[in-house]
Amino acid sequence: MQDQSDQTRALWVDGVSVFTPARTFDSVNPATGEVNWQVAFATAEHVAAAVASAKRAVNDPAWRKMLPHVRAGILMRIADAMTARADEFARLQMLENGKVWSECRAQALSAASTFRFYASACETLGSEVTPSRGNYLSMTAYEPYGVVAAITPWNSPLTMEAQKVAPALAAGNAVILKPSEVTPSGALLLAQVAFEAGLPKGLLNVVTGDGRETGTALVEHPDVRMVSFTGGTATGRSIAGIAAQRLIPVALELGGKSPHIIFEDANIDAAINGVVDGIFEGSGQSCVAGSRLFVQRSIYDKAVGLLVERARALRVGLPDVAGSQLGPLAGFAHRDRVERFVSIAREEGGQILAGGRRPPEAALQAGAFFEPTVIGGLSNSATAVQQEIFGPVLCVLPFGDEDDLIAQANDSAFGLASGIWTANYQRAWRVARALETGLVWINTYKQLSIATPFGGFKDSGIGREKGVNGVRLYQQSKGIYWSMDEKNFPSDGALA
Ligand code: NDP
């Protein structure tokens, strides 16, 4: 390995780490504003070399003909190595996106377990024999696409990178991973760990750079046969446009503005816990954050009072200090953007019920911190209610009856997730079916399992990641007909 020190991070092409001092970018700690290290910038030439390497590797009989249980063994060893080095992964994420230590560590372990899950899927998912309409055997077999581009965001890079790389490898592809320029280091460590665990070189290349140059070069490369993307809706739309021209499939996990709903018969304490976690964990930088809270009018004042009390009591602090519940936002420009949304909410008549400002503590002045914020008094059409803020900002709105609730909750361009709190199981079922979201939580929020498919309706995305069938996202099906009878043609031999 070349030139990898505490101050620099090299990208991975063809199993070799590459650092070009002439072209780098800074990784910045959002809790302190200090530069963590310099990271190699992948140009279009690096991307081309990475794709060429991936193409060679995916066509190499050593990988193409590797039996599924052997491939699973490599994924399992990656999972073990990630578990053993979970603290290292967690520290990199904490220094780059500012999430608190406990969350970073939980995400590092979750990423490892994703590799374990897809190792199991790899050796158990099979081809299918389908019902035939004659004397032949008909089957569906599954083939990898070849070279897959995986593009990931900065909010939960460890879990999202595992969520793409593990099933794509299990499916038999080679992967080019482009992490966000905000959080490049976990992806680089993942490649190193994977090679040490026996993954043949070229099957995972990591190109660190920005979206505009590195990301575009990757999506446009003619040998990239599939793109799996998580990030903003605008970026997803532009990637889908390129993919449409190239006629390659895309999987898009995009933004959200998830409605979180409390009915008057709910267990109010449990509901408020769920709402607080659902929006403020990770400082609200989560695609499934429950950022629009609808409370039934009869309990509105009580619920909002409890919520405001809880929001004000949350501890904003340095991510490595025990007891900190919210770290900084992932970057300074992003914090400014969140702040602008709060100003717009004020201009549109919103009342700031909690937070709404940078914390005053001296120890936090150098970082991109923002207080947990609750805004009332806005209509469902207000900017802060309709647009994804991706920060610790919750808008609360009252509703009358179930019809009013469903009309308001579905009045959104997004459709990623929703949450319902009620003691009435029939209502829970009715509302869950009526909500236009890819995920519904009932009397819980943000509980996630790798075994359950994940993805959005409407502008929140296309395709479903996770679940055993997450492997199929990275495969194309092939129908195979195999005659059991010399004369078994559809024309019944009339043309013979
Ligand atoms: P982006 O969509 O800008 O970035 C996501 C990834 O795409 C990053 O790796 C980025 O690279 C890359 N990228 C950016 N532009 C292109 C392009 N033209 N071609 C190829 N790749 C590209 O999201 P942000 O990180 O800036 O976050 C903005 C918004 O995205 C958030 O406010 C939120 O709405 C949403 N988001 C959704 C997430 C989810 O889980 N669904 C997660 C994170 C964000 P780089 O960062 O290096 O520029």
UniProtKB/TrEMBL annotation:
Active site residues per record: 253
Keywords linked to the UniProt accession: Oxidoreductase, Plasmid
Pfam families xrefs: Aldedh
InterPro entries xref list: Ald_DH/histidinol_DH, Ald_DH_C, Ald_DH_CS_GLU, Ald_DH_N, Aldehyde_DH_dom
Domain Aldehyde dehydrogenase: 23-478
A molecular function (GO) term: betaine-aldehyde dehydrogenase (NAD+) activity
EC nos: 1.2.1.8
Superkingdom of the organism of origin: Bacteria
PANTHER family: ALDEHYDE DEHYDROGENASE-RELATED
Stated family: Belongs to the aldehyde dehydrogenase family.
Name of protein: Betaine aldehyde dehydrogenase, NAD-dependent
